[in-house]
Description:
Layout: H1 5-16, E1 20-26, E2 29-34, H2 39-48, E3 56-64, E4 74-82, E5 87-95, E6 101-103, H3 112-123, E7 126-128
Parallel strand pairs: 2-5, 6-7
Antiparallel strand pairs: 1-2, 3-4, 4-5
Protein name: NADH-quinone oxidoreductase subunit C
Subcellular location: Cell membrane
Family: Belongs to the complex I 30 kDa subunit family.
Amino acid sequence: MAVENTDIQEKLLATFNSDVFNFQQERDIFSLEINPAVNTAVILFLKNDPSLRFHFLTDLCAVHYPQNEIHRQFAIVYHLHNWYDNKRIKIKTFIHGQTPEIKTVSNIFLSSNWMERETYDFYGVNFIGHPQLKRILNMDEMISFPMRKEFPLEDGGRTDKDDRFFGRTIDNC
C-alpha cells in the first residue's frame, strides 16, 4: 500500500506534536515545516519508520531571506525520497540570521556531507557535528558567502568589461 500524505502527517504529529507544522501539498510534493531543534530526529524518523521508508536524501540546500525577522532569515530545505512508493517530501526549517547553525544529518545520510559543505561554503551555515565542515568550492581565504543576498552580484572594481555591450548604459536607466 502506497504511503499517503495523511499517514505521514498523522505519524509526525503523533511523534513530534507542535514541532512539525504547516503541512501542505505543493504541486507534486508534500511539504512541511519543522522546528530546527528536531531536524535530526524528524529525518531519522522518516528514514527508519517501516511504513514511511524515506531512505534517500535527494537534496539539502539553504535559502536566504534577509527581509524576514532575524530568527527566520535562513531556511534549510531537505528533500527526501521513498523509492518503494515513489513518494517525495520536502522539509523546511528556519534558522537564525546572526548565527546560522543547525545539527548535521551527515551521520544519517552520508550523501549530505557534500551538500552541507556546499551550503556552508555559499551561505555560511554551521552544521554542528559535521566531520569536516570547510569550504568545498570557493577559496579557503574567502571571508564572505556568495549566495547571501548582501553579496554583490558584480565586482565594482572591474575594468575589463564595457557595460554598453550588455545593454546597461546610463541612457537605459
